[in-house]
Amino acid sequence: MHKTAVGYAIGKLLQVMGMLLLIPLSLAIYDYPQVSLGGMFTHTEIFGFGFAILFALLVGTLLVYLYNSGKNLQGVKEGYAIVTLGWLGLTFIGSIPMMFWFISTDPYGWSNLFLHFTNAFFEIMSGFTTTGSTILSDIEAAPRSILFLRSLTHWLGGMGIITLAIVIFPAMGVSGYQMFRGEVPGPTKERLQPRLTQTASILWGVYLLFTAAETGLLMVGGMDLFDAVNHSFATLATGGFSTENSSIAAYNSDFIEWVIILFMYFAGINFLLHFKALRGDLNSMFKNKEFVFYTGTIFAVIIIVTTVLYFNGLGQPEHVAEHYRNGQPTVEAFSSHYQAQTEQYESFYDTFRIASFQTLAIITTTGFATVDFDLWPDFLRFLLVTLMFFGGCAGSTGGGMKIIRIMLISKFGLNELKKLTQPRLISPVKIGKQAVDDKTMMNVVAFIFLFILLFVIVAGLMTMFVPDLTTAISCSIATLGNIGPGLAGVGSVENYGWIPIPGKWVLIFSMLLGRLEIFTVLIIFRPYVWRK
Fold first, then answer.
1. Tens digit of pLDDT for each residue in 212-233?
2. Running DSSP on this structure, what letter comes out for residue 315?
């Protein structure tokens, strides 16, 4: 591996991050108009952002200067190393302002430095990977600049900050296609244009268009500009960070919920299909088997969830009361919460709307919530966990294993079953009329094997840090699949702040593995990769 190539590219990425942090810094300064210029940097948020920007630009510029000779040393190994190490570096930079804010709100301040760094790194990694798992118990107490930072990391991580860097610095010169492959989700990375910069620009153009459209519609629904931008960032990135403690439920608006349902659906679709559809080529979308399977699965699950909830209602109160919660509520508090939740399902329409919202929020891995779905019957809780493995389409901003892989492994299994009774049968796996080559099929099988294996390992490790098996299992798939909320102790009305520091670092690594699709991260642990 040419380490100079890696150093040069990471330097460029740090420069990009430093410039992007000017946006929340400007918001922090705007929110303190009465403060003099000299006293601005005594405010924690302003100082934190200023320090992070200065650090990112200085270190980034130094790396670019020192390793300028490596900018044209392209290679596969360098590409994957840049993606993994770049994401870790960007997360570190992003966590600096949040860490300073945590320190300022803690009476013990710097004595809990490692705890605050861990919490900040967890929150920003959750943002960049579009997981949406939060350690904040009172989101509304955070300054607007910190809330915007969380949403900005969502939005950047959704389409990929390295993909953005390729647009900003088309002459980065370092393994552009390998970085693109390592960051864009899915087993295939189709190009619309022969030049990678053009493809990346198209993806970001569509992404911007949808973000602007959703922001406008949410403002029509009653959100102010700040909340509309933040929730649009979280929706299109399938992230799930909200500016409200009760997430989307805080707005109590059917219109806002349906807008977010629509854009969660869009976010789970391959963005290259969106581009073709916007150009008038709707046939490409409807001929795409992954899109058809994705849409069909969503409708089927919505029907099942609506039917069960409407005719059966929530789980039995004496049963769901036994679900683990961090800081178990009193009998009176739980009874009041259960009754309030029950009243939300009074009509068929309300049940259908809730079922639609939560189904889209989970299968697209957005993770927003309008209800406490941990009160649902066990069958539906199991169904939600199953959806966490699915995720969105390849080339979308969704997490999970991806719909195309679910389709391929299912077809592969059925083919193998046929061959047991028809040994001479030659039946390649096909998606539509196109046969899938053996190399792609083996890659899919290996990915799913590793995904399941890592899920088991993370769940096993988390049993040492949380006192409940359901919590350990669900937080593992919720982070590896980049969903956000899980069940029990990390359910839709809970948070991850109570998990011990070692458990948080396990989940941080799990989030990174899930977003960069396992291979990109694991490959840098091979000694061969680092040899020249």
1. 999 999 999 999 999 999 999 9
2. P
